[in-house]
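User: Run a structure prediction on this.
Assistant: Running it now.
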Amino acid sequence: MSRKKITNSELNEILTRIKSIRNLKNNKDVAVLLNISGSDFSNRKKRGTLLPLITQWAIDEKINIEHLLNGDEKKIPPDSCIREEDASYRDKKSVDALLESVRKILTSGNKVAAEVLEKNIQYFVRVIETEKKTVTRKK
């Protein structure tokens, strides 16, 4: 499936919103906020791997992701946020149900959500591959 990647301009808009939300002045401040070095921030921005980190930060900080990613000004009341203990992923879902959820995200037209999902799947695959190599070396 072909879809447009997030542009540098779109990422800069997201970074501007983060700076506004946290009253920061520059990208170095955002790097500190994300617990990475300035050079790591720069490298991730160039490679296009910064968005998953930003998304995870937003989730952890209970930041309105729609506003952060798309500039949507609708405010979500704090009591409507999903608490960890209520998260739907805790329910065991069938493989078919999970794949259907992935299909819906990838075909939704929300390029940011699709990009984040794709990056997270790629990271997960790398972690599993690294774990397999580590177990093999220990034997």
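Residues 54 and 104 are 22 Å apart (CA to CA).
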